[in-house]
């Protein structure tokens, strides 16, 4: 049996204006994949008499949700799906994300020390901003130093601090070949050691951690100015950065706004859901208010089924350290909708290249995925 792997790249429009972004949706993405499969089936005369028409969808994160939804909406075209770290349940205020961040710190360090140091660093940061904001912008390598930040600027700043710390948690211990070798061992324990095993004040430790993340991400400086970030996200030119597109889908389908609602003690309640909603309106228009976004999220969950989707031959894979796992399926629903919950792993860990350092739980999970697929591919298409 010959196995082919296809990578789809497509553009619908000349720019990313709101008028054109209306064609950017999960439903359209699924329809595009379905059309591609149908075209390949016809072009290569694929049929199920020799099991040549056994399309298996793989995806991680949003693409993992798409892989599962393909089996829900196009079961006659897609034979099976592996859905990794997929957030199936759309939600406006995804306050659980940073609560997952907190639980990951505790799980990986077996202590509250790191969490407490981050709390302390936030208190010291708030004091520093009041006393010497210019020094803060220099410490945190702001692209545009300024001494009188607006409330929007501060909200953006605190959001960025939390976002960058959470990125280390979300990608913890995965085999990231896309970053320089010197940074591939940056993990939860690395940054927690910087907070807890040095003589630095908590604020100074936070500065060092953010500067490390900036080097790892090859950021020369960081924009904390709300208006500048708004201007960048309003750019309708099609570029490599996908910030505008994903934000649009958040505002029209999913929400998933990672707010400070549940972690005010860690980061302050500086980026609540209202802040995110106003960002939608600033970028795309006043109609994108709370009522519109909430209605769109409800439609998404009704259309796909949220965490109660019904399908056959869909395998869900989640990691216990991944803050996204609570939005997906991490317990087996039936023999046709099994789940693998990998203790100690993070976002999409199973999809990365194997390496000697992989945990035994991750190694076992990859073998289990293979076993499920081998069993399913031996079955008739029913």
UniProtKB/TrEMBL annotation:
<dbReference type="GO" id="GO:0008239">
    <property type="term" value="F:dipeptidyl-peptidase activity"/>
</dbReference>
<dbReference type="InterPro" id="IPR042269">
    <property type="entry name" value="Ser_carbopepase_S28_SKS"/>
</dbReference>
<keyword id="KW-0378">Hydrolase</keyword>
<keyword id="KW-0325">Glycoprotein</keyword>
<keyword id="KW-0645">Protease</keyword>
<dbReference type="Pfam" id="PF05577">
    <property type="entry name" value="Peptidase_S28"/>
</dbReference>
<comment type="similarity">
    <text>Belongs to the peptidase S28 family.</text>
</comment>
<dbReference type="GO" id="GO:0070008">
    <property type="term" value="F:serine-type exopeptidase activity"/>
</dbReference>
<keyword id="KW-0732">Signal</keyword>
<protein>
    <recommendedName>
        <fullName>Serine protease K12H4.7</fullName>
    </recommendedName>
</protein>
<dbReference type="InterPro" id="IPR029058">
    <property type="entry name" value="AB_hydrolase_fold"/>
</dbReference>
<dbReference type="GO" id="GO:0006508">
    <property type="term" value="P:proteolysis"/>
</dbReference>
<dbReference type="InterPro" id="IPR008758">
    <property type="entry name" value="Peptidase_S28"/>
</dbReference>
């Amino acid at each position: 049996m010959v196995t082919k792997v296809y990578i789809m790249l497509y553009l619908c429009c000349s720019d990313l204006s709101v008028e054109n972004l209306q064609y950017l949706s999960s439903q359209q993405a699924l329809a595009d994949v379905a059309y591609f499969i149908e075209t390949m089936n016809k072009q290569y005369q694929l049929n199920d008499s020799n099991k040549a028409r056994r399309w298996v969808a793989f995806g991680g994160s949003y693409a993992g949700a798409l892989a599962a939804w393909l089996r829900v909406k196009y079961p006659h075209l897609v034979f099976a799906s592996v859905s990794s770290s997929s957030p199936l349940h759309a939600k406006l205020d995804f306050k659980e994300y940073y609560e997952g961040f907190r639980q990951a710190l505790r799980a990986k360090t077996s202590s509250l020390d790191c969490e407490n140091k981050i709390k302390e660093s936030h208190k010291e940061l708030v004091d520093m901003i009041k006393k010497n904001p210019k020094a803060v912008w220099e410490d945190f390598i702001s692209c545009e130093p300024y001494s009188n930040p607006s409330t929007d600027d501060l909200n953006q700043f605190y959001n960025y601090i939390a976002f960058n710390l959470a990125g280390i948690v979300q990608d913890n211990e995965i085999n990231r070949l896309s970053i320089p070798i010197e940074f591939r061992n940056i993990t939860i324990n690395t940054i927690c050691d910087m907070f807890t095993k040095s003589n630095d004040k908590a604020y100074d430790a936070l500065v060092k951690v953010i500067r490390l993340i900036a080097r790892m991400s090859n950021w020369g400086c960081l924009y904390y100015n709300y208006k500048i970030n708004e201007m960048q996200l309003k750019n309708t030119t099609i570029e490599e950065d996908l910030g505008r597109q994903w934000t649009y889908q958040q505002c029209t389908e999913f929400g998933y706004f990672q707010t400070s609602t549940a972690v005010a003690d860690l980061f302050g309640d500086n980026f609540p859901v209202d802040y995110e909603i106003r960002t939608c309106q600033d970028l795309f228009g006043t109609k994108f208010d709370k009522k519109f976004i909430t209605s769109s999220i409800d439609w998404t969950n009704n259309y796909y089924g949220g965490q109660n989707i019904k399908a056959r031959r869909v395998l869900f894979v989640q990691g216990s350290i991944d803050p996204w796992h609570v939005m997906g399926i991490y317990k087996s629903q039936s023999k046709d909708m099994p789940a693998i919950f990998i203790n100690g792993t993070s976002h999409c860990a199973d999809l990365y290249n194997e390496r000697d350092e992989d945990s035994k739980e991750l190694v076992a999970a990859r073998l289990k995925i293979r076993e499920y697929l081998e069993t399913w591919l031996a079955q008739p298409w029913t």
